[in-house]
Write a structure and sequence with these properties.
There is one protein chain. By secondary structure, the chain is an alpha/beta fold. It folds into 2 domains: 2-115 and 298-315, Nucleotidyltransferase, domain 5; 125-295, ATPase, nucleotide binding domain (Nucleotidyltransferase, domain 5). It has helices at 32-36, 43-65, 84-101, 110-121, 161-171, 178-185, 211-226, 233-259, 274-287, 303-315, and strands at residues 2-7, 12-19, 22-30, 74-80, 105-109, 129-134, 139-146, 149-155, 263-267, 290-292. Strands 3-2-1-4-5 form a 5-stranded mixed beta sheet, sandwiched between helices. It has a 5-stranded mixed beta sheet with strand order 8-7-6-9-10, sandwiched between helices. Helix 2 packs parallel to helix 3, helix 4 (110-121) packs across helix 10 (303-315) and helix 5 (161-171) packs parallel to helix 7. The two termini are 24 Å apart. Bound molecules: 5'-O-[(R)-(carboxyoxy)(hydroxy)phosphoryl]adenosine. 5'-O-[(R)-(carboxyoxy)(hydroxy)phosphoryl]adenosine is lined by residues 10, 114, 135-137, 162, 165-166, 177-180, 183, 268-270, 272-273, 300-301.
Amino acid sequence: MNILSIESSCDETSAAIVCGRNVLSNVVATQIERHRIFGGVVPEIASRMHTESISQVVKQAIEESGLSQSDIDAVAVTFAPGLIGALLVGVNFAKGLALSLDVPLIPVHHLRSHIAANYIAHQDLKPPFLCLMVSGGNSHIVEVLDYTKFKIIGRTRDDAAGECFDKAARAMGLPYPGGIILDKIADASKADMYKLPHPRVEGNELDFSFSGLKTAVVNLIHNADQKGQEIDKPALAGSLRKKVCDMLIENTLKAATLTGHKTIALAGGVSANSELRERMETLCAKRGIKLYYPPLNYCGDNGAMVGVQAFYEFESGNIADSSLNAAATLSIDYR
Ligand code: KG4
């Protein structure tokens, strides 16, 4: 089944053609440069840029797949969650395309597709497994019970891990998107130089809280500024990265013990983090847990992961009609 899939939930316009877990093409037009001068994504600009590039991106995805329009069996699109204006561009384009090609329209949840990014490179990965889903807007520990059945067992009470990285990086004067740059400049050997808090929450022991950590970094920088002191950026980046990884890893391994899962997948933009991957590799190997994470080119937003998840959504009967609407928020375990 050849699926043409579209992603426009944030600052990447992407389209792909996939057949099952095989990616025939995957075109990504990133808006990062345009948003960089503002230090973050400007929703209005994102929507406009999706509108400008979506036709070309879809056309290129079809061309690069070697298929023609008549070979497309379904159109899939990210419909939630994300920036509402940005999502609407993809959803409306997909609706029109599905109608004109007379093929089914498959709605895909953005976080489900991040998890599906793992299926592309790891043909052996099958539910059930545990997933640490960490992106710019979400931080969840999810049980993937089946391809379209999810149970959230841990979540952030406030900011996402990516938000914590991005805002701390911005306060450090690093360019957007801060999480990636912060990871690059972080000096692990100086990770104990700055003492940062390890916020814990009451109630569910698998939940996270990142906002206090973010504020601690911002305050540390402001205090140093006021005293005319220089910040050692690689040391601060290393300290923050270590702390965020401590929190993510501690809860994920605790979740594995509590649930008995012997397979863990990482997903979302923050799963590109080098320390998170390395430490999880070592710790999972010690515990006899199989660890999966997506290749770097599939960690960020892309159409291919949407198409792969769409295949399973279609198989489970999740098909939309022309009344499909975008939603800014929607839980991954929606039915
Ligand atoms: O999943 P994603 O591409 O978009 C959302 O759906 O949110 O995630 C973007 C987030 C940003 O916060 C970005 O800074 C973070 O992923 N990120 C990283 C790294 N690469 C991307 N954070 C830490 N280390 C990285 N190497």
